[in-house]
């Protein structure tokens, strides 16, 4: 049967996307898994729906604890040897989990693996054949996997819309920094700490999933650009970057330069306790 994967999905409204995500996981996942849902105060019937999903743990927050806080809750509740963070606006595809898990088994120095997709930052973005329906998307994903089987690369960072890692990574580097509220840069920070601990990142070119992109922010009327600037300032201060938050948002940064500068993982500075705000001092 293989080891259990805990699929951690955060929700805050956006029921239509959540339902499509869950149904795709149920249809296209053959390896053992459990759902861990963390709801950040939905008011659109999401909680009622989640209560009907089999093989699921539902954690309901009365207030929005943000992406990092919700992920930490989910990680604490997870029973799996593998943890997979999955945005609720993702639709997975045939052999997606087998593909991602296969890469972690192929090279034990890989700490985190993610797929390629649409509507994601350039590092993991591809230009898929045009599709109008999810059935057409599934056909594209199947063809894409056949054409790219066994292909991947080392990225500077991975995007948190779909991230797989071994639970032991949490024991080494901790969870997500909850200062990045409600979302943005917590995945950058997590990847940096993984790399500093001696792990590498891997983008699996042979796994394609569909990503609607920023659906939770849109569903809740949040301004992504304003929030990005706020969290960019926190990220800039935490890692002592010599650029302004505006520049960071506009032109980005090179994570490898930070890794070269900091060099090694220092538990006293870099370990983030689950549910606590720990970081560089």
UniProtKB/TrEMBL annotation:
Residues 6-173 form the Glycosyltransferase 2-like domain. It comes from the Bacteria. InterPro entries: Glyco_trans_2-like, Nucleotide-diphossugar_trans. Keywords: Glycosyltransferase, Transferase. GO terms for molecular function: glycosyltransferase activity. Pathway: Cell wall biogenesis; cell wall polysaccharide biosynthesis. CDD domains: GT_2_like_c (cd04186). Belongs to the glycosyltransferase 2 family. This is Glycosyltransferase family 2 protein. It comes from Paenibacillus chitinolyticus. The lineage of its organism: Bacteria, Bacillati, Bacillota, Bacilli, Bacillales.
